[in-house]
## 1
Amino acid sequence: MNSVIVVVLGFIVSFIGYGIYAKYIDKKVIQADPKKATPARMYMDGVEFMPTNRNILFGYQFKSVAGAAPIIGPIIAIQWGWLPALIWILAGTFFIGWVQDYTSAMVAMRNDGASFGRLSHKLISPRARIILLSFIYFYLLLIAGAFGNVVVSTATSLKAAPMAWLFLTVSGVLAGQMIYKWHNDIIFTTIFCVVITLIGIFLGSLLPSDRLLGEYIAGNKPIWAVIAFIFCYFAAVLPIWRFALPINYVASYIVFLGLVFGIIGIIILHPDFSLPAYTSFSIKIGPLWPIMFVTIACGAISGWHSVVSSSGTARQLENELDARPVGAGVMFVEMFLALFALIIAGTIYTSPQDYSAAVKVGPASVFAAGVAKFLGVLGMPADIGKAYGSVMMIILAITIMQLVIRFMRVATSELLSDLHPLFRNAHVGTLIASLLGLVLVLTGWWQYLWVLFGGANQLMASLALMLVTAWLMAEQRSYAWTLYPMIFMFVTTIAALFVTSLSLLQKVFTGAVTGEALVGNTLMGIVGFFLVLCALVLGYDGIGAFRRLRSKAVRGEI
Amino acid sequence: MTEEKGGLFRAIKEFVYGLAAHDSARYALKSRASMEHLFILITMVDMMGVPIVPPYYSLMLLPYVVPQIATGKRRMLREKDLTDALA
């Protein structure tokens, strides 16, 4: 099949999903009212609650939700064949993805901008909040582990990436200094720092790390894992304007340019899919159901979006009518990102064997080869294109990872500071978060880590849908359109986490793994089971809340 | 047509701003707000029932703090948890 058909299908799904389905829900069920004062207007404090233009919020929401996940998920999931992946991306976005993103923002908006912690306390049960927060901590840990693995595999397998990463770091820190301390012109600073990073990408292709540092250091996984976490350590303990934010700022232009030109390249080349449409129901990382449904998380449905929508975007929407373009619209755009990743993975290899050899190293090599091919159509030499693709992958992963370690530092302090005041120290919290992430990166097999991360992410999505359904019940509005997606996601993700954790721990107990794999399997298995346990308790409380709300509605008490 | 073009150009400009810089602006505002919280906590905490600075000095500082009292109190007293820090 030609890739253009995939793009056309994407447009059809977006048109029906956004233009008809979402519009109907927005108008008839949620009844978005432009005259209603949003929390951004009612509680404006100029900081968190601030009415913001919807175009700006569209960019903010897109930047906050579109990381490496919509790209890596389809690259891995194509192992089952491109057809199941394509169907899940389209159907997941249409029935569940936008529903979750949009309603998370709407529920928070209609509840005075309350966060999910407060909403779960109010709508589900008091203990739901505590469980949700513990769940989020381990969810963050899995993000750090999965994305850390992407960074390390990229740095070790694509030797042009480290030089570009170094230049990005230097230019990012310089951008922070120029903007906040020297008060230089923002346009000049942006162009100057982006050009420095582009020079780094060019130099990376000329001087790969194996030539510069030697084969041993260039391909040494522990060394690059430690470097990645030192990077995150600085991001977590330094003032955010000094390190994390300006690096993200410069990085966003590199990614944006790469995506725009890559997409143009795909449109010009419009290749045919060369990999099989369907391979087998069960492959090495697990069966198609439930594992594929968590392997492709962002791009179809992702719990992370609900956190951004509720705690970030909902407090800035100046008009209820903006929730649909910002919440739902961004989800459909992200669907295209996943479709383009699917096209990259499905079209650049001539045989499944070539693809298998590439994906064994890591998703970055597949992505970088694709970027090189499609930028090549526009005249970029292949080695520079590959360096560009590799640095894009590092950027997409490390920008999320550094923020996650920063959040984990805050969470460690919140959760453990009552045990000992030492845990309030920023360095101690960061060290704990970094060490836990480092252990996962060094000992876990990246495909299992990705599945666990996807499982946690999707479980977060089903919990968000649970909150939304409870709210719809309390408001006596139609709720089947969130209840059934929630049930599907809940069952699927619990099954995925259970199957993966069980298979990991089975290998531990049967003695099939030794050394670092033993540590990795044990840790990942325990974290997986912990998440399943949290989800089951939340599910139990959720059912109780649904019953309570329905009986109240029948008695006319609400 | 010209107006439409201007609208589209403005929309793209705002989208790129949202993509690249809106987050930075929010963090900068949050950092400033944290400092203001500390300042209000030290000087005006008697409004919340915990006197630290003698009321005489609080009264002297009051004119400078007045514009921030309403929003500052709302921010400080609002229930928060980890999910607030995430976005």
## 2
Amino acid sequence: MRTIINFILKQHNIIIFLALEIYAIIITITYSDYHHNISYSIINEFIGNIHNAYYSLYKYVNTVDENKKLANQNAELLTELLNFKDNNSFATDSNIEKIYKAIPANVVYLNVHQRTNYIIINKGYNDSIEPDMGVISSEGVVGVVKDVSANFSTIIPIINVNAHISAKIKKNNHFGTTTWDGKNYRIVQLCNIPYHVKVRIGDTVVTSGFSTIFPEGIMIGKIINYNYSEGNDFYYIEIQLSTDFNSLNNVYVIKNSLKNEYKKIENKIKDVQ
Amino acid sequence: MYNDIPKHIFRFITLILLQVYVLNNFLFLNIINPYVYIYFILLLPFNIPNFLSTILGFSIGIAIDYFTGSLAINAIATTFLGFLRPFILKLFAPFDGYEPNTKPTIEYYGLSWWLSYSSLATFIHHTILFFSETFNFHNIFFTFGKIILSSFFTILLMTLFQYLFNKTKSQ
């Protein structure tokens, strides 16, 4: 017993080092579980508040730019609204407009230069935000909500190496999945588009609507490069994102009111199988 | 030495804010991202116990990780750096050792000592950081390019800090 205590006292430096290092490695490899323990929620609120203070300062300095952007966005929305009213004489299914609800939020922290980028926004479960909701901006897709505390939420953006969003080529409806190689925050890759599909530079890529996260047809970006290697059934396609993450500020969290119903049906299918 | 504690705490907080809000948002040439928060670890006093430098290394790394949501990759690198720091200091020690009441700065030990000390530390830290970030050895040349260029900018900025903030103290 005494030898063990002596050993610990003698080697305390190495033991502390190994303990801390193993703890850090486990968090990194298992991808996460510190997000789910109790302390995280408290720390998240604290850090969210610091991010918020910085954001207020940043916003104060950049008000003019932001106003211009909002004015443009307003104009676009107005145009859309007018078009919608115009078409509405044909619309019979009044349910369509009620399925999705957009909750506006502001980005208080974002990073685009890591491989596992994160965004933090200033709305949380107090504003009925839940994990796995989609997040978009006026320019296009942003990402998916991961963790929620009282007043803040963490979002995994499309430019995170672990993010995969179901997408399709707008003109021919062939669908695939986006991935990111972690290099350029303006460009993501589109996988699983089979070789027989006709692809052209400049084609628009939008969300597929196959999950309850995003509605169909939200802009992701435009194809800027593609190639095909021998012995591979799929294209390698690069998409220029329509969302400029570096200047991202106003986002909308999408709430899908049919999500629970969809989940129920999905679980039933699983039960049958 | 102990009346320097507020100064170290101040440096700890300032470097985190600088790293999270300024440096992480600038990316030169698309791949260079300096991580100057290790300046805190490099400037810890000579006489602190080894286990404390490991713990302080872990603290600043995990703080950065909490702020940026980067799991614990910074903590992996800084814990290692904190653990290794006494050995790096020993490696570059002058002939008769470090004198009491001195700090690991250019002011006391000169530019060439500072550059060799900070370069080795930065390179070790960046290598671990970038490899724990990618977690694989594909694109190994790309990663090495990132490590070398980012290390260069980190050392440059830290040396700049030395000239900016230590001159006034010596007067």
## 3
Amino acid sequence: MEFLDNIFLYGTSIIRSIITWIGFDPAITNMIMAAVYTVAILVICTLVALFYVLYERKLAGFIQYRPGPNKLGPFGLFQTVADAVKLLTKEDIVPRNADKALHFLAPLFVFIPPILALGAIPFGNKLVAVDLNIGMLYILAVTSLSTIPFFLAGWSSNNKYTMLGAMRAVSQKISYEIPVIFSVLAITMIAGSLNMSEVVGMQGKLWFVFVQPLSFLIFFIAGIAETNRAPFDLPEGESELTAGYLTEYSGMKWALFFLAEYCSMFVFSAMATTLFLGGWLGPVLPGWMWFVLKVHVLMTVIIWIRWTFPRIRVDKLLEFNWKILIPASILNIFATGIGVYLFNNFF
Amino acid sequence: MSLSLILSYFEMINWHTIAFYIISIFLISSAVYVVLTGNIVRSVIALIFTFLMTAGIYFLLQAEFIAVVQMLIYAGAISVLIVFSVMLITDRDKNINETSPFSHNLFFGSIASGLFYLAVSITVHNTSWNVTLKNKEFTDISLIARGFLTENVIAFELAAVLLLVALAAAIFIIKEVKDDN
């Protein structure tokens, strides 16, 4: 079990010793190792996107009492591969009056925040690319950049629907960032640390979800809005805006947006797991397996919510944030402050 | 050339300096692009890139906290404010270098920026910097927090009050507009 728990760490140390054996000096070895970590994160991102595209379609089928994709391969497992081939061979259409450079760059930029964020998330004990002292703040900072690609996509397409979608995306993401940060702040107050691994280490006896249930709820709701998932997927809102900021995208560029959505869902679930659900901690199974299991449960809940709830109206969406989520999270911070003070002084 | 010779050549390079120059080149060229481009959205994007490269410089100096705050506040929040105002511009194809009232004063503008550069460089050269190898003050954020709530508590609270005033004023202005309608 010890071996299984550290299998990835053994892998990286083998690669490191091979590089040192060739004769590179420490600075270059570190750079090559950074490249190895980056490739590993890219692979995780791709696998997650590929798996959850199919998983969502299967689960949606189950919820709607239909089989879902079941023709290609056993249980329709090759459906995603076939879709990828189809999307790759599709014609890439760019509107005549679009800003062509930005129209091309937006689907590439959309992948940067989730990949950067995954670098600071501990997948297991010591299984983290960069164990920053301020990891939590770093992830919040990086994910706050995710607004920009959606604005770029909407603006560069030069279309009123995409522009409206972009406006919605920007206003929604900037508003829902506040409750996310506030709910993380409550965890920071209890943990007294911004290091992701330390936060997980403190949850050995009690997961923070039981100490901060309201905070978890706020984080989860705001996270769904941050990742543009139903019932908060108004920037796409196909019933009113054709497809929102995605309207003018086709083929592989559209697919990149689609895949990035699953990546950012994964990042958000991984954050929730680390902060509230005890990260890699758990009995019997190796740590990274527990982590994957917990993330998978959260992803399932997000998908379940999407196929259960109808989309809410845009003014209700912002009202819900500013009048319910933010006041609740501020009250939660006050309560946490009092609780931490009482705990430190009287127990 | 044998492998060991190439490797010894690599060892002579100071990677830190190379990273600094790469980031600086991107930083300066994107900052110049912000000013020179006529397209306002491209200008905003280049500005965000400039903010991120500045954060890169801070990371290189191992001032992680300042780097992350730079990303969170400048690249994440300030840029979104600019994006908001850009989205309200109706004529998207106008060249901002022609429509902006400030872009015609090339002469005075260059004098002003030259003077600013002079002032900054004189200050930088005449300051005796505390060079420490262990910059614990930058990485240990509990020290920063303690500084905010003990020594500099008045400045900290004043900034908070200022932000509150700005927030109240913004809400008040919006409310006025609504009443007129």
